[in-house]
Specification:
By secondary structure, this protein is α/β, with parallel strands linked by helices. It is built from five helices and twelve strands.
Length: 220
């Protein structure tokens, strides 16, 4: 986790009015590998182990028990190109947020988009190696960041329904928000979920840039 990302962290319990304080045990090349973050208001602490930050509020069980805790799988070169195009950031400086399945593309995006730091939010990334430009972590319903932190946000399937309001809060004005939609072909009820989520994203966004059966891209 890069030190610049730590400056944008806020307590998920107390809200963005309360920043987190880094208590580092091991820092290499400006990346926090071991330590914790503490809140001066509620006194809660959030651990960093092997570069992976766990910002779930208590009571937080084992990461292995989290839904979707398996490794998100190998990256997809073509998928990474499409994701980079949809996010629309050509160069840094700046920070991007990839939550859920898009997080598997983080390693490729930092190579494709020079000068950015990618926050990869997925419990299955805990065991991966530290990569320059990628800050791995997991969180609960509240994203542990100040408002307008990110130049681009991508939410995987399921994350749009649970974290949409938070995604728009942490996305900077003028940035793009990419939301994967439920597969409408699975069951009839899923089609209803897909349409409801797409309508909500459209209402929150300033402009719709792209909409397909499986995703929608809007300007914050």
């Amino acid at each position: 986790m890069h030190l610049l990302v730590t400056d944008r962290l806020a307590c998920p319990l107390c809200g963005p009015e309360f920043g987190l304080i880094l208590l580092s045990d091991r820092v290499e090349d400006r990346r926090v590998l071991e330590g914790s973050f503490g809140c001066a208001n509620c006194r809660e602490r959030y651990p960093v182990r092997g570069g992976f930050g766990d910002f779930r509020p208590p009571p937080a069980g084992p990461l292995e028990a989290e839904p979707g805790s398996d490794d998100p799988g190998p990256d997809d070169p073509e998928g990474a190109l499409r994701l980079a195009a949809m996010i629309g950031v050509r160069e840094g400086p700046g920070t991007l947020l990839l939550a859920g399945a898009p997080a598997r593309q983080a390693d490729r995006l930092v190579v494709m988009i020079e000068g950015v730091e990618v926050v990869a939010l997925h419990p299955g990334l805990r065991g991966r190696r530290e990569v320059a430009g990628v800050s791995r972590m997991h969180a609960g319903e509240a994203l542990p960041f100040y408002a307008s932190t990110f130049r681009g946000v991508a939410l995987g399937e399921g994350w749009g329904e649970s974290h949409l309001d938070e995604a728009f809060r942490v996305a900077a004005p003028g940035s793009r928000v990419v939301v994967e939609l439920p597969d409408p072909g699975q069951v009839p009820a899923t089609a209803d979920r897909r349409d409801a989520l797409a309508a909500k994203v459209t209402r929150r966004g300033r402009e719709v840039l792209l909409e397909t059966d499986r995703l929608i891209v809007v300007v914050r």
